[in-house]
Amino acid sequence: MLSPEARVALTLRVVSGLSSEEIARAFLVPVPTVQARITRAKKTIAAARVPFELPPAEERRARLARC
Can you give the three-state secondary structure of the chain, one letter per residue? Predict the structure, then answer.
């Protein structure tokens, strides 16, 4: 299972396209810490063989419009 910090960091990177520097500033942690969280999260997802893909751009827009 991913920690809440790892889930948020990965989401901010993948969905929002934020850089490690931007995410680190938001978490008030060093950039290497964020990079390690994202790397571990990706490895955990891959090891668990969880399908991980973004929906097509149009579907993402529709989903985000509902928020």
Answer: CCCHHHHHHHHHHHCCCCCHHHHHHHHCCCHHHHHHHHHHHHHHHHHCCCCCCCCCHHHHHHHHHCC
Structure tokens at 50: 């969880």
Which two structure tokens, joined as six digits, stand for 38?
Answer: 């994202």
d(CA 20, CA 26): 10
Q: Are 56 and 64 in contact (CB under 8 A)?
A: no
pTM summary value: 0.76
In the prediction, which pLDDT does 10 show?
Answer: 94
